[in-house]
Amino acid sequence: MSTFHTLTVQDIIKETADAVSIVFSIPEHLKNDFSFDAGQYVTLKKEINGTEIRRAYSICSSPKSGFLKVAVKAVENGTFSTYATTKLQAGDTLDVHTPEGKFVLSSEANKNYIGFAAGSGITPVMSMVKEVLEKGVNASFTLIYGNKTEADTIFKNELDVLQHDFPNNFNLHYVYSRERIDGSKNGRIDESIANYYVKNLYKDISFESAFLCGPEEMIHSVSDILKSCGFDNDAILFELFTASVEEENTAQITEGNSEITVFLDDEETTFTMQQTDTILAASLRNDLDAPYSCQGGVCSSCLGKVTKGKAVMTKNSILTDSEVADGYVLACQAHPTTPKISIDFDDV
């Protein structure tokens, strides 16, 4: 079910030359709706130049902070990110979806966690770090954080303060690809960097879980090292900020048509769509307010469950094999492959 609320921007914080944090005022009657777990995201919606734009941004405040904050980094030709970093002001309003996402951490006392983040991938991990440190009592978080330069490092000052305030609970390491700074690693977060921290510097620490957020190449490289160190698949959680453009499973998509029944907001709608079209695109063209955000298979806002028939995803980087086996699909990547298909957006 798609649930947006209009929220007022309380503050805009300049984090770097091309990144800002947006702090929202949450009315008392919406406090429960906007409660969240560390690592979740919200979808922001705004009409810009006559076009509705939706983008997903991870929450970087802690669940106990009492406020909702996201960070936005400008990207080349990015309609919303350019607007947010150059025009958005305190007092403006945005439509904000209630928190979503399964990339979450629920910290426990006496547990150790490790995170690898690159660039703006720090945003959900920042919330996790705060969650662990607020719990205290022997819980720890080790963060390896990669950027081009120190000036590009979102939350640099805030992270340094946390390290100073929690020297026994927070291990912080920077990796820079375009400059050398004493006390930091030079390069990108890859197998060698991950190997150094997991197999050498922290080889005597048993980590409960690992949280990875950044580009797909980094996710794969670090995951391989973690698995070689004995991490179970369930203990490695990741969220992509960029995915590869290479498509998969296109051979199963045909030129035929499918009769599709969509269950959305407690209503049932049936129409005919081309199998070369995605379920999300076809739903939107038939005036259904189907949930979505990135439309690139990176977030899970458009998650639905196929209850009849079959569909194939051209790209899947985030759903597990068991979720796919249970019928879950990313509607922005899903194409029907049977004459009739049903998808439920409500029961997910």
TrEMBL record:
Known cofactor(s): FAD
Keyword Flavoprotein: yes
Keywords attached to this entry: 2Fe-2S, FAD, Flavoprotein, Iron, Iron-sulfur, Metal-binding, Oxidoreductase
Pfam families the record matches: FAD_binding_6, Fer2, NAD_binding_1
2Fe-2S ferredoxin-type domain sequence ranges: 258-348
InterPro entries associated with the record: 2Fe-2S_ferredoxin-like_sf (IPR036010), 2Fe-2S_ferredoxin-type (IPR001041), 2Fe2S_fd_BS (IPR006058), Beta-grasp_dom_sf (IPR012675), Cbr1-like_FAD-bd_dom (IPR008333), FAD-bd_FR_type (IPR017927), Flavoprot_Pyr_Nucl_cyt_Rdtase (IPR001709), FNR_nucleotide-bd (IPR039261)
Domain FAD-binding FR-type span(s) in chain numbering: 2-106
CDD domains in the cross-refs: fer2 (cd00207), PA_degradation_oxidoreductase_like (cd06214)
PROSITE patterns per record: 2FE2S_FER_1, 2FE2S_FER_2, FAD_FR
The protein, known as: Ferredoxin--NADP reductase
Species, as recorded: Asprobacillus argus
